[in-house]
Amino acid sequence: MSLPDELAGPLSREWAQLAPLVTRVHWVATTESTMDLVQTMTGQAREGLLVVADEQTAGRGRRGRVWASPPGAGLYFSVLLTPPMKAIALLTLTVGVGVVNGIAAATGLPAQLKWPNDVLVGRRKLAGILAEGIAVGTPEQAVVLGVGLNISAGAYPPEIAVRATSLETELGRAVDRGEVLAQTLVAIAHWYRALLEARYDEVLEAWRSAAPSAVGTTVEWTTPQGPQIGVTAGVDDAGALLVRTSQGIERLIAGEVTWTL
Ligand code: BTN
């Protein structure tokens, strides 16, 4: 299905800047999840296949959560990538930097990152990033990266408005969804190229400056031994969150932390 004009204009203006992140675009009015649609289309394209949906009927988030995806209220897209193994550890942090930079470029809104890859304004979630490996350990190994970004308050159920927000809620005005999509993809593509060129220090520096809570914030997380508490002490070069506890520095490589204050 061809892209609606709202998205086609901005995307075609920025097209030259999107490779290798995006080399082909498929738009659908509705699908269960763009994560799955990309996978079913992998026979047609490898790296750079972007699937954008106006609505998802079974959008999913990290840790098995539902990602509400009503029509017209958000951006819901997934892209298929085949980065080298050594780049995979920093992939979601890299995409997070791109999403924050893209939002700022399109709207001027300064969102922040919360480890590992929540995009927040204050304490409210504006966007989320999901990475799923496919055919892991085989020559066909790839990563599907999904981004959900709330454009208007209709993107999420009213009962979670204390923890969610949208671009239009924050800015108090309508935003151009096509421009947000295009600028977000331009910025993700910029940082993805940096990752492929092994400019890891630049990626990490950009991530750290977009994630002030990664230092000096009291956090809790769950372990098989029970809840833990500590104070964030930065991310290391592998993208792990360092947390100072009464036992010393803990290194969190996956999962999520809750801000306690
Ligand atoms: C999170 O839990 O923070 C990640 C949310 C990711 C949502 C996006 S929307 C596009 C893509 N399709 C999905 O089903 N999920 C991701």
Give a verbal description of the structure.
It is a single chain. The protein is of the alpha+beta class and 261 residues long. It has helices spanning 5-14, 34-40, 85-88, 91-107, 167-171, 177-196, 200-210; strands at residues 24-31, 49-56, 74-81, 112-114, 118-121, 124-134, 142-150, 215-223, 226-235, 241-245, 248-252, 258-259. A hairpin with a 2-residue loop joins strand 10 (241-245) and strand 11. Helix 1 (5-14) runs parallel beside helix 6. The longest helix is centred in the C-terminal third of the chain and has 20 residues, at 177-196. The N and C termini lie far apart (47 Å). The structure holds biotin (BTN). Biotin is lined by residues 33-35, 56, 59-62, 65, 67, 76-78, 118, 128-130, 146-148.
Any key phrases for this structure?
binds biotin; about 260 residues; alpha+beta
Residue runs with pLDDT of under 50 for 5 or more positions: none
Q: Categorize the overall geometry.
A: globular
Q: What are the secondary-structure elements, in order, as H or E?
A: HEHEEHHEEEEHHHEEEEE
Helix segment count?
7
Distance between the termini: 47 Å
Mean pLDDT: 95
Strand content: 25-35%
Radius of gyration from CA coordinates = 18 Å
**Main sheet, how many strands, which sense, barrel?**
7 strands, mixed
Q: What is the strand tally?
A: 12
Question: Helical percent range?
Answer: 25-40%
Oligomer type: single chain
Q: What is the strand arrangement across the widest sheet?
A: 1-2-3-7-6-5-4
The secondary-structure class comes to alpha+beta
Report the bound ligands by name, code or SMILES.
biotin
